[in-house]
Design goal:
This protein has five helices and no strands. By secondary structure, the protein is an all-alpha fold. The longest helix is centred in the C-terminal third of the chain and has 34 residues, at 82-115.
Length: 118
Amino acid sequence: MSPISALHLAAPPGLRPELADRLGQAGGLRDLKETELAGGAAAVSGQSFSDLFTGLAREVSAKQAAAGEAAREVLAGGAVNLHQAMIAMEEANVSFQLMVEVRNKLLESYQELMRMQV
């Protein structure tokens, strides 16, 4: 399996619209041109890959913070319903799991590249 095909991901729900549109048009990362993925630069919106991944990590962190706040509101008897808090917590959990899986795929791809003989 090539490193680029290892990066194939479908656009998950909750992904930023411009990235989801780009992935949808390209059929996933697998179908992007190799030049768009080379050198660590993402072709999406002219951002570097590190900026893109940092933004996704911040979104996950924000969802986790919102879920924590919703749970605190439920415990304090606030205006947040239990089902809304549970939905927020599950959304944060799924977002975190997605981020971890993306990181794992990237790490596997990097390791595969390092094993290639020159």
